[in-house]
Amino acid sequence: MSETLPPPSLLLTLVFSAALLAGLLLKTWLASRQIRHVALHRAQVPAPFDGHITLAAHHKAADYTLAKLRLGLLDLMLSAAVLLCWTLLGGLDLLNQALLALLGGGMVQQLALLGCFSLIAGLLALPLQWWQTFVVEQRFGFNQMTQRLWLADLLKSTVLSAVIGLPLAALILWLMQATGGLWWLWAWGAWAAFTLLMMVVYPLFIAPLFNQFKPLDDPALAERVNALMQRCGFTVQGFYVMDGSRRSAHANAYFTGFGAAKRVVFFDTLLKQLAPRQIEAVLAHELGHFKHKHIAKRIALSLLLGLLAFALLGWLATRGWFYTGLGVQPNLMLDGVAGSAPNDALALLLFALAAPVFTVFITPLMAQLSRHDEFQADAYAAQQTSGAELAGALLTLYQDNASTLTPDPLYARFYYSHPPAAERLAHLQLFPSSTKAAPA
After folding, report:
1. Which residue numbers in the chain have pLDDT < 50?
2. Mapped to the 3 state alphabet, what secondary structure does 63-125 carry?
């Protein structure tokens, strides 16, 4: 006599719970390994960095890493509890039913559901965000934010999310209702177009709402980076300096924008910490990502994964067990029987909540792809400028940003998007200094 399989809704509940527990245990185990490994190697600067990194800086990096990891473990536990409350314990269902009673079914109720969920989720995340900024970052000398600026950023982000996100959500919800069984393809097209549009809009109109961007006013450095761009065959809209020190002592540089809006942005902290030749090498590294088409490949991969996600959602949204298995009573089309209101916003939220529970297991693959790209970009920088200068820049940034030099190997393989410091510097030693670099 064959055994009867559990109903699909129960099966989904069991699979979701098992995946959530497995992911939680895996992340906790990896974080515990990282904590033990960093603490074990705190007492002495690793041999490859002896003479470059001071013992005091090494201690600071270890303590900073441990503080972030311990806060991360708390965040991990709280996030899992909040996820359970939203799903299997009925929080999302309760919110949906309350808004249905207040607003009835329709677009307004669905947008209200998305908006209220986002607002509540954001409020729940605020305490740890505040602690990270004003306790952890403050303790190690990185925070430059005032309470007033933090609140102003929060207000701006909330308003922008509503102004940009709600119209996009309304478009997606309308497509889900108006375009039939292939709505997911139309919705993906709208999302993809929005993603590409934001690459142009963000650097021109959104980023300046939070930071000041001034043209690079160092003639010698401008001449150096212009010469680098010319010999590498790249053009950009301009070189800008961002007042990153207004919020943090961490340093960075990046490319942003798309097409004519492409620009190079240097944090003012980076310009203070690095010599001109080191800045040139850091910029050459960023150019390496473009030379090897890493950015285009990453965008293409993101769009492809988005297409697969929308296709999967298109199938799940018509299955009643998808809702009930995750703790929600659907409003419409439960096993083909029409109800009183659309489920589209519910489907979007449930998918957004459940997907990360399963995709966490492909994190090592994505991290490996990213590390491969970083090695390629480093090699390009060494060929165009100087591997020694890039190594010197990295050593300065490792010290000034309090980056740990002794990560647990397994933790690094699972999470790190950049190669660990020792591996990265050893790789750079394979490349002699380029004759193309501008003189000092």
Report:
1. 1-2, 333-339, 435
2. HHHHHHHHHHHHHHHHHHHHHHHHCCCCHHHHHHHHHHHHHCCCHHHHHHHHHHHHHHHHHHH
